[in-house]
Each structure stands twice: as structure tokens, then as C-alpha cells.
């Protein structure tokens, strides 16, 4: 396994041109949905799918010898350094938002280039070097209070999202201390590692020790393992842990391998899960197979929806495994107040998200009717959630964390669906916008604002909440930032500024509960400071006549005056040079941003002109109205009890 992980850190050199995924016949979308690329040609699509050059190294493999901050990786790229060494990602990207801001205001570049302050380097994650060693001889792990505490934290804050372990059986095996086979020990140590993250603050690095021990039990030939515990250990490694320590490309490869291993075990087929009817042990084993497969499905979806890469068929006609069943055993889960309910509803969400991911991998700017259809599916999913997952009534902490993150993820995906319309109009300099495009922009802005308000009320002081909250706040921040840079003289600017200031306050408060909070705050703060200098700089460069030509209606969309003259979104000329390292700077990853794009400097402006160029090729349609947001959740109170209740 260490040898393989070293290989996974390296850039892929030999890659064929990517092909768009075929329509998912199991999706609830109509079969004729298929948005064309903006350019209407294969040339435009080819610009989206650039392959990394042969001479690059990702941050993930350089981390072993260079002093790269813990928050940095080639996808995350929050180091603020001029570093273009990036892996391939697609078009549904925060980098697209940055590109629009730089196009509208090229002077922003100077605000993003100063070196890091020493205070930003507070997280110094120890360098992790994968060594080629022989598999470790399995040894029994005796019970300890520390181990018990970490297991409790895992089942309290992680298990509710991916309930693939039989809790009663797992706890019994640990208590008895009789199992010492390599697959079990690998899984146990990954439960310890995730328990550390769930229980402690972001400046604690004990999880590294458990991860290293787990890897000692996962040699290269473990990928040929027939043990479900190996698949479960790899699910935690690729679905969570490697994202947490900012190894997103490795995580993507490991979770993909885990899915292939699961299919080799037949976890995707219901006929194999059923087995002979009979004993409770056989029923529990079948349920574990279902939970493991669907946990993998959700982990892969959550991590890759905003990557701009296709889903590569994780959901299709050959997968007939049933969703997990409720009521199999009320003692299986410590989150018994929610039971298996969050996973069942997340499966439904992830099927819609997979369809959206494949659509955006083909073209980031969907036809209005397609966007309306997909948005409607999301709204219907949320409005149909069981009362337990929509109410703001007090509840056990596992359920509280799960339902908050489910809502934030729902809002983020809807925002991602509408965001290309905002970027298209902001970048194009168009003086008109169709009604359905204005509606999409307003939906995007409303969702960003609602996300900020909800997270400010709902986040809790643990890393599962803080980790996700920082990522979703960072995504939401791009909407008011783009709006300010585009429509700097809109009467709505004070409201957008207030949203950003709220985000900055929240990110500061979350520094103990997210590795990325401090760096994310620095990035947003620099852009915000640049935006506050924008109006005086623009007015200095405008003639009096130019200032009189601009009018703004209540939507904030720029409209021409009565003379019909063309109005450009920014009077500042667009510089022809490449954007240097700034294109990587804003891209968040881990479970923050699996979002971004590799753009070669000479091609960046060509891509923007073709894909956000405002060629007037607008499609008719009306986006679904309303956000379908659930009511305000109550305040929370979390203590060290097994089930602290939220009031």
C-alpha cells in the first residue's frame, strides 16, 4: 500500500481525451436532457479538458521534501504562492469565479500576491513520508480508555454519515481484544484516526499515528483482499481522512479503488446481499453489505461533485443493491434517534447530485430548462425529507450534525447549479439579461445569503461541523465577491459586504475546528479589501460621461441608458497576460473544495471568452422558484455526554 500511495501522488502522464458520460437512465431526468457546450463545438470542450504537462509535480508529492503548509495542495492551493503545478479538474470551479473577478478587475492580482504572514503558518502538520516496508505482523490491540473514547467519538460524529459498521459487533470485538487479523486492525486504526479528528481540535495531530499504523496493515496486495473490513478502512481513508490532510488526488484514487474492490465482492448486487434467508447473523451481514456500498457511493459523490470530472458510472443499471433497511436492529447505531434515516435520504440526494455532476462535466452552463429540471428535483428532495430531518426541534447531537450538513450541502449544490449564469453575465459585459437568467442569478445570491445565515446559527464546535462549515462558507463567499467586483455601484453592495464580513467573523471563530479556516479567511479578506478599493479606482479612470451612462435596476443587473449605448461591466481593460499562480490560490479542496480547474496561462482568456463570453446564445426556460429552505434550527448545546441534546 505505501508503494501504491507513492504512485498515486504522481501526475498522470498518459491520458486519453475524456468523453462525456452517457445519460443516466436511472436518473429521474427526462432522457432528452443534454446541454451543449457554450461554444457549440468540440473545440470549446477540448479547452476544458487540458491534461497536466509532463514536468509538473503536485503539492501532494512535493510535501515530503518542501515546506508546504498543511492547508495547501494542488487542488486546494491556499498557499497563496505563485504555483501552477496542478492536476486536472473540470469547469464547475471556484477558479471560474476567480477568473471572472480578475477579468472584471485585473488589479485584484496585486492584492493576492503578498507573501504569507507568519500567523498564517500556525498549522504545521508533520511531514508524512510513505515508506516501502514489509507488512506489519498483526498484534492484538488491548482495550484502553483512550481507545474506547475514540471509538465513542467515531460513532457519535462520523457513523451517522456512513453507518457501514455494525456498531454492536465492532464494539464487542474491540472489548474482547481477540481479533488481530490485518483487515480488522487497519479498520480499527482508521476508526481511531477519525475519532481523534471528531473529538479534538484541529491543532491535534495524534490522528497521524493511527493512520500510519493502519497503512502498515494495508500493503499493496490488500487491494486483492476479499475482506469487507479492508473496503471499509479504505472508504474512511479515501472518503474522509486523505481529504482532511489535504491529499485530494490520492483520496480520489483510493475511494475509486475501494469502489472497484466493493464491486469485486459483489456489494453492488442485491442477489448477493440477500443470501439464504435465516439467521439474524446472515441478515446483519446482508445489511452491512448494503450500508457499505451506499456509504461508498455517498462519500464519492460528496467528494467529487464539484470537481468537474465525470462520475465514471458509480450509479447505473448494473447496480441493483437495495437501500439499507430501517428497523433491522435498533441497537446497531449509537445515533438510534436517527437510525439509518440520514443515509437513506443522502442516497436519494447523491443520485440527483451524480446526474448534475455528469451534466456539468459536459457543459458548466446548462440550458435553462435543464437547470430548472435539476433544481426542481433538489427542491422536491428537500421538501420531501422526513420531519425528523427538517425540523428545528431539539435533537441528539449525531442527528443535529447530520441534518445541518445535509441542508448546507443541498444549498451549495443548488448554488453551484445556478452560479455559471452569474459568472457568464459578469464576465461577458452584456448589457441585457433574459428573465430566466436574472432569476437564476437571484436564486444563486439568495442561496449564498441563506447559507451564511444558516451556518452562523447552526455550526457547532467540533471538527465534523467546522470542517464542512468552512468549506460551504468559502463557496458562498464567492457569490457576493463576484457581485461586488461586477456591480460595484449597485445599491445592494452594502448587503453583499455585510455577508462577507459575517463570513470573515465566522471563519475566525472556526479556526480551532477546521484546518482550512485560517487560510480561507485570509483569502476572502484579501479579496474583500481589494473590492473596497474598487469604486474609487474605477471612478478615477472613468470620464464624467462614462459615470453618467451606468444605471442599475433593483436586480443589480446593468442596463443601458436611453441612448442604447453599450455598457461594459468594468471600465478597466482586460490584461492579456496569464494569471500566474493566482488561478490556483482560491481553489479549496479536501472536503472543502473538490472544485477547480487546470488552466494553462495562454488559454485562460480564450476559455473565458468562449465559455463565459456572453455570445447571446441564451436558451429559453424558467428556473424553479424558491429555495425550499427549512426553518431556523435552534441553538445548540454540546457536552461530553454520549447524547447531548440540542436546545
From TrEMBL:
Give the molecular function GO annotations: DNA-binding transcription factor activity, RNA polymerase II-specific; RNA polymerase II cis-regulatory region sequence-specific DNA binding; zinc ion binding
Write out the ranges of the annotated region (Disordered): 18-41
Q: Name one GO biological process term.
A: DNA-templated transcription
Looking at the keywords, is Nucleus present? yes
The Gene Ontology CC terms held by the record are: nucleus
Stretches assigned to the Xylanolytic transcriptional activator regulatory domain:
251-330
Keyword line: Nucleus, Transcription, Transcription regulation
Classification via SMART domains: Fungal_trans
Q: Which PANTHER family match?
A: REGULATORY PROTEIN GAL4, ZN(II)2CYS6 TRANSCRIPTION FACTOR (EUROFUNG)
Q: What is this protein called?
A: Xylanolytic transcriptional activator regulatory domain-containing protein
To which species is this protein native? Daldinia eschscholtzii
Amino acid at each position: 500500500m505505501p508503494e501504491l500511495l507513492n504512485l498515486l501522488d504522481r501526475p498522470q502522464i498518459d491520458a486519453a481525451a475524456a468523453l462525456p458520460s452517457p445519460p443516466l437512465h436511472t436518473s429521474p431526468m427526462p432522457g432528452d436532457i443534454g446541454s451543449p457546450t457554450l461554444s457549440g463545438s468540440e473545440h470549446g470542450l477540448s479547452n476544458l479538458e487540458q491534461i497536466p504537462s509532463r514536468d509538473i509535480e503536485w503539492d501532494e508529492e512535493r510535501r515530503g521534501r518542501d515546506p508546504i503548509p498543511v492547508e495547501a495542495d494542488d487542488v486546494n492551493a491556499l498557499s497563496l504562492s505563485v504555483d501552477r503545478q496542478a492536476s486536472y479538474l473540470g469547469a464547475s470551479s471556484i477558479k471560474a469565479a476567480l477568473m471572472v473577478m480578475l477579468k472584471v478587475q485585473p488589479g485584484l492580482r496585486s492584492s493576492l500576491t503578498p507573501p504569507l504572514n507568519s500567523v498564517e503558518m500556525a498549522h504545521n502538520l508533520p511531514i508524512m513520508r510513505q515508506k516501502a516496508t514489509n507488512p506489519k505482523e498483526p498484534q492484538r490491540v488491548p482495550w484502553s480508555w483512550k481507545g474506547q473514547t475514540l471509538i465513542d467519538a467515531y460513532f457519535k460524529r462520523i457513523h451517522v454519515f456512513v453507518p457501514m459498521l455494525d456498531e454492536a459487533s465492532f464494539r464487542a470485538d474491540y472489548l474482547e481484544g481477540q481479533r488481530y487479523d490485518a483487515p480488522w486492525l487497519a479498520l480499527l486504526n482508521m476508526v481511531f484516526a477519525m475519532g481523534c479528528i471528531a473529538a479534538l481540535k484541529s491543532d491535534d495531530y495524534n490522528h497521524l499515528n493511527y493512520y500510519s499504523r493502519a497503512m502498515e496493515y494495508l500493503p499493496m496486495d490488500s487491494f486483492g483482499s476479499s475482506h469487507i473490513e479492508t473496503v471499509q478502512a479504505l472508504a474512511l481513508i479515501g472518503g474522509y481522512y486523505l481529504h482532511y490532510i489535504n491529499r485530494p488526488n490520492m483520496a480520489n484514487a483510493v475511494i475509486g479503488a475501494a469502489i472497484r474492490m466493493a464491486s469485486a465482492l459483489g456489494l453492488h448486487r442485491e442477489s448477493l446481499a440477500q443470501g439464504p434467508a435465516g439467521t439474524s447473523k446472515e441478515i446483519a451481514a446482508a445489511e452491512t453489505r448494503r450500508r457499505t456500498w451506499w456509504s461508498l457511493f455517498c462519500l464519492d459523490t460528496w467528494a467529487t461533485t464539484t470537481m468537474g470530472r465525470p462520475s465514471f458510472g458509480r450509479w447505473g443499471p448494473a447496480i441493483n443493491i437495495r437501500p439499507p433497511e430501517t428497523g433491522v436492529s435498533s441497537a446497531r447505531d449509537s445515533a438510534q434517534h436517527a437510525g439509518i434515516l440520514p443515509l437513506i435520504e443522502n442516497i436519494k440526494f447523491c443520485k440527483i447530485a451524480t446526474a448534475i455532476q455528469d451534466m456539468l462535466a459536459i457543459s458548466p452552463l446548462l440550458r435553462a430548462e435543464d437547470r430548472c429540471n435539476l433544481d426542481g428535483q433538489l427542491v422536491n428532495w428537500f421538501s420531501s425529507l422526513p420531519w425528523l430531518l427538517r425540523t428545528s426541534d431539539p435533537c441528539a447531537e449525531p442527528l443535529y450534525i447530520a441534518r445541518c450538513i445535509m441542508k448546507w450541502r443541498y444549498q451549495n449544490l443548488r448554488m453551484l447549479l445556478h452560479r455559471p449564469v452569474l459568472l457568464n453575465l459578469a464576465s461577458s459585459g452584456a448589457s441585457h439579461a433574459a428573465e430566466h437568467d436574472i432569476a437564476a442569478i437571484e436564486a444563486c445570491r439568495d442561496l449564498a445569503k441563506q447559507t451564511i445565515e444558516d451556518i452562523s446559527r447552526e455550526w457547532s464546535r467540533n471538527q465534523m461541523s467546522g470542517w464542512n462549515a468552512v468549506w460551504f462558507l468559502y463557496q458562498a463567499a464567492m457569490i457576493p465577491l463576484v457581485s461586488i467586483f461586477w456591480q460595484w455601484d449597485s445599491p445592494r453592495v452594502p448587503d453583499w459586504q455585510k455577508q462577507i464580513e459575517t463570513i470573515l467573523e465566522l471563519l475566525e471563530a472556526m479556526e480551532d475546528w477546521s484546518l482550512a479556516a485560517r487560510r480561507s479567511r485570509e483569502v476572502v479578506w484579501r479579496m474583500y479589501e481589494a473590492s473596497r478599493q474598487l469604486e474609487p479606482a474605477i471612478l478615477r479612470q472613468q470620464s464624467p460621461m462614462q459615470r453618467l451612462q451606468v444605471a442599475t435596476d433593483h436586480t443589480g443587473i446593468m442596463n443601458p441608458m436611453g441612448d442604447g449605448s453599450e455598457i461594459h461591466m468594468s471600465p478597466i481593460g482586460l490584461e492579456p497576460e496569464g494569471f500566474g499562480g493566482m488561478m490556483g490560490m482560491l481553489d479549496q479542496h479536501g472536503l472543502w473544495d473538490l472544485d477547480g480547474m487546470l488552466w494553462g496561462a495562454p488559454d485562460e482568456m480564450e476559455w473565458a471568452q468562449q465559455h463565459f463570453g456572453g455570445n447571446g446564445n441564451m436558451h429559453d426556460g424558467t428556473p424553479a422558484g424558491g429555495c425550499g429552505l427549512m426553518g431556523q434550527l435552534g441553538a445548540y448545546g454540546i457536552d461530553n455526554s454520549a447524547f447531548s441534546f440540542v436546545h
